[in-house]
Design the sequence.
């Protein structure tokens, strides 16, 4: 299913074959304090070529980008731009070679206009000591025309929709004479139509001789414009081949190293009573009119694109965001809004999205990270019952099979999967009635991921109500009885987990 | 042997070595004076004042904050206590009446210290002000209040019983030393063995995660700054008793000194790590150094310079960058 335009790309390839590749990496290795993030990876990309770099979280994708961008030094291997080898790289060298990275957050200046954002960096790099507004506008206009899109030059970037912000970031890269544009997770916040128009632009760039590297853990959408797919797993290159050889399933198999066929959850007892009732919850500009019921023993999934309001809703349920109106009732008793302490008292637990900054006290011990939720319970008058506290923490570490050598070791020393279990243990120790899991398996290896899914199923079987928020659709399908789709801050769809599949769900999310 | 070596690698272990080295150095430079009973006793009377302030700074630093108002709080509380002793009790009062008024003035001073801490804590917890600015401002306010109450002059004329706190001895152990020992043990106990203490350290390690773990962050901050204020007030009472007077601008050099001691004692200024034993060792090192410099007749200005250099030096040694630099050297 190749688009017709790729014929012209193919015509170009023999020409560029004679010239040295734009980027050639051989045997690139990177170690972070004993952990091998990249293990002897070879990688090439040529002018006008589009390549998919696929891999799960923690597979080494971002390390590879950082090395290319000159942000991180490599420990071994060679990197050559246009046939010139560079012993050490710096952001400057990479930028001069035309390697531009567009990160997921685009790194734009929200308070500046489109024209200023596009032209700012190139003006800083090329012109003298003074900023010249007229030149900026010309350059911005030319670049937008080159991409073939029409965005008002004077609009402030913060007021643009996500898809347009992304285009502004692409234009900025082009204004800096980009020859390779690296796009980190380019489609996570885009609807289907926006992805289509992005692909049209990518084709235009390719025929212009610009190379594009897509970096993502869901790449099925961009496969059609790519010549080549490279798959990383645990820092090593495990697959490479023409894009036509891959489909969604084979890509997943290459990324995870096994066929992920998880069983959907047991059907829910139809007589299970309602546990958590949310009515008309609203927060201006974030989410609106959210109502749903979670039953005892039910796993409810909330699916939505980045920026759909899914994380904000979860935070509001746990009191970290104060909703403007609406009601949350747990077992028929109102839960006070906007106060995490009272939400926790009522029996709501929240496992946050960003484990490293929101979930864990990285330098503190494993045991303390579990015990922090139970300090008040073990407070016996003036003194803390330390024995009881540590015994309980260790018991939970054992129950969730956290692999550790010493509960006194800093939690930083654990792997992602074990760290996530520590956060889970902290909440389970408090005996919650409802557990909200935001991205339960982000940055977790495949084995731990299915273990965590198993834990979720067990908790539901024990009568907990679980809410899973994730952009990993197979994860939602593997764990949830029922799915809510969020779009623009509203719940737009509700489906039983058994009545849908990945394609259908993806379509409902992004259409 | 191994455990001894590994202990030497901790900040507290290094500090113990430093304390011993400074002691030996000063003792060998001027043995007859430094090791004299008079000097040793005089040191034991001197350091508890700023050592208790260092404990106050330590508890706030454990949360990743700081309390720059400790000297202001200590003077404000001392001035009020002094006014009670001088004007209400009067210099002639003796016997159980004087002891009663002394106790009452102490309770009032500590309550004022805690209230001042509550104000600091409220600025940090509810308004979200950075502790360094909140307490810088409030410290000036507290000093200003002390000036306003006294008109800037010293308050004098206490019952003789008031001198016991700063100058007395129990079984030939100086009272200030006993007071410091009790408070140091109490703070160590609070930090290590109470829910409040553990929360304090966890909050310091990652305030955001503490909020996500449903720790009662606001109440925690209020209590921390109240504790700091109460400790500062006790230090103020010691100064008052030893000087036999109270004034709005006593002990202004103690602020830098107490921060220096906390940092030297291995308390992480970004929060989340610190041990009282380290602070005690740092106090001893500083007192040995200070007495020694005194005996060598080093000027006061030079001493402040030495403290400043020491503070930067300790931060340098403890900083990640320097550690990384040394690690890289060793590798290559």
Sequence:
């Amino acid at each position: 299913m190749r688009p017709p335009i790729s014929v012209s790309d193919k015509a170009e390839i023999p020409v560029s074959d004679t010239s040295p590749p734009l980027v050639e990496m051989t045997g690139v290795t990177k170690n972070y304090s004993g952990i091998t993030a990249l293990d002897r990876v070879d990688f090439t990309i040529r002018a006008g070529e589009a390549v998919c770099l696929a891999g799960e979280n923690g597979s080494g994708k971002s390390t590879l980008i950082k090395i290319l961008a000159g942000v991180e030094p490599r420990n071994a291997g060679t990197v050559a731009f246009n046939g010139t080898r560079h012993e050490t790289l710096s952001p400057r060298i990479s930028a001069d070679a035309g390697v531009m990275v567009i990160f997921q957050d685009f790194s734009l200046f929200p308070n500046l206009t489109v024209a200023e954002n596009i032209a700012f960096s190139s003006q800083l790099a090329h012109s003298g000591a003074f900023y010249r507004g007229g030149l900026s506008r010309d350059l911005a206009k030319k670049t937008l025309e080159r991409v073939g899109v029409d965005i008002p030059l004077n609009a402030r970037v913060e007021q643009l929709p996500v898809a347009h912000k992304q285009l502004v970031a692409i234009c900025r890269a082009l204004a800096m004479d980009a020859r390779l544009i690296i796009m980190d997770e380019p489609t996570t916040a885009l609807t289907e139509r926006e992805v289509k128009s992005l692909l049209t632009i990518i084709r235009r760039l390719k025929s212009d001789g610009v190379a594009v590297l897509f970096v993502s853990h869901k790449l099925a959408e961009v496969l059609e414009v790519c010549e080549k797919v490279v798959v990383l797993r645990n820092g090593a290159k495990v697959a490479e081949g023409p894009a036509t050889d891959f489909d969604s399933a084979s890509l997943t198999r290459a990324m995870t190293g096994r066929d992920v066929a998880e069983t959907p959850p047991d059907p829910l007892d139809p007589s299970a009573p309602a546990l958590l009732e949310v009515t008309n919850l609203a927060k201006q500009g974030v989410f609106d009119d959210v109502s749903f019921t979670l039953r005892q023993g039910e796993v409810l999934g909330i699916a939505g694109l980045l920026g759909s309001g899914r994380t904000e809703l979860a935070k509001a349920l746990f009191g970290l965001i104060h909703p403007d109106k609406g009601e949350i009732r747990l077992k028929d008793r109102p839960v006070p809004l906007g106060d995490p302490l009272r939400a926790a008292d009522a029996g709501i637990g929240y496992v946050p999205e960003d484990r490293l900054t929101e979930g864990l006290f990285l330098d503190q011990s494993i045991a303390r990270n579990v015990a922090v939720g139970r300090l008040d319970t073990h407070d016996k008058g003036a003194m803390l019952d330390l024995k009881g506290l540590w015994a309980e923490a260790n018991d939970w570490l054992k129950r969730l099979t956290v692999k550790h050598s010493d509960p006194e070791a800093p939690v930083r020393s654990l792997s992602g999967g074990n760290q996530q279990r520590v956060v889970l243990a902290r909440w389970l120790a408090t005996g919650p009635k409802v557990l909200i899991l935001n991205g339960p398996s982000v940055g977790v290896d495949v084995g731990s991921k299915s273990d965590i899914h198993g834990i979720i199923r067990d908790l539901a079987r024990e009568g907990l109500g679980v809410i899973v928020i994730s952009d990993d659709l197979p994860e939602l399908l593997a764990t949830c009885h029922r799915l809510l789709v969020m779009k623009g801050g509203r719940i737009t769809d509700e489906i039983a987990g058994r009545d849908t599949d990945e394609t259908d769900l993806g379509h409902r999310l992004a259409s | 042997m191994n455990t001894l070596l590994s202990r030497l690698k901790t900040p507290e272990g290094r500090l113990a070595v430093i304390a011993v080295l400074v002691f030996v150095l000063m003792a060998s430079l001027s043995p007859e004076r430094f090791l004299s009973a008079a000097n040793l006793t005089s040191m034991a009377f001197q350091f508890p004042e700023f050592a208790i302030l260092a404990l106050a700074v330590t508890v706030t630093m454990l949360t990743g904050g700081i309390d720059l108002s400790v000297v202001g709080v200590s003077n404000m509380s001392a001035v009020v206590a002094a006014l009670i002793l001088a004007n209400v009790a009067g210099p002639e009062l003796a016997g159980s009446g004087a002891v009663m008024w002394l106790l009452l003035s102490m309770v009032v001073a500590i309550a004022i210290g805690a209230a001042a801490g509550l104000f600091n804590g409220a600025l940090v917890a509810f308004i979200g002000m950075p502790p360094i600015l909140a307490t810088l401002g409030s410290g000036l306010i507290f000093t200003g209040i002390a000036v306003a109450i006294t008109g800037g002059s010293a308050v004098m004329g206490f019952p003789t019983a008031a001198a016991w706190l700063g100058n007395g001895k129990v079984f030939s152990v100086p009272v200030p030393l006993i007071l410091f020992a009790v408070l140091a043990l109490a703070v160590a106990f609070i930090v290590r063995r109470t829910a409040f203490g553990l929360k304090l350290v966890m909050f310091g390690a990652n305030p955001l995660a503490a909020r996500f773990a449903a720790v009662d962050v606001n109440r925690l901050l209020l209590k921390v700054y109240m504790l700091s204020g109460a400790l500062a007030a006790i230090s103020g009472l010691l100064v008052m008793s030893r000087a036999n007077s109270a004034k709005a601008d006593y002990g202004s050099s103690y602020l830098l000194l107490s921060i220096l001691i906390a940092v030297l004692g291995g308390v992480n200024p970004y929060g989340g790590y610190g041990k009282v034993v380290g602070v005690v060792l740092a106090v001893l090192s500083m007192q040995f150094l200070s007495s020694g410099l005194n005996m060598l007749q080093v000027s006061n200005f030079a001493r402040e310079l030495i403290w400043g250099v020491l503070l930067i030096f300790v931060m340098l040694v403890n900083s990640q960058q320097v550690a990384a630099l040394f690690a890289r050297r060793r590798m290559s």
In short: Residues 6-98+179-253 of chain A form a domain with the Rossmann fold fold (CATH 3.40.50.300). Residues 115 and 125 of chain A are 16 Å apart (CA to CA). The two ends of chain A are 21 Å apart (CA to CA).
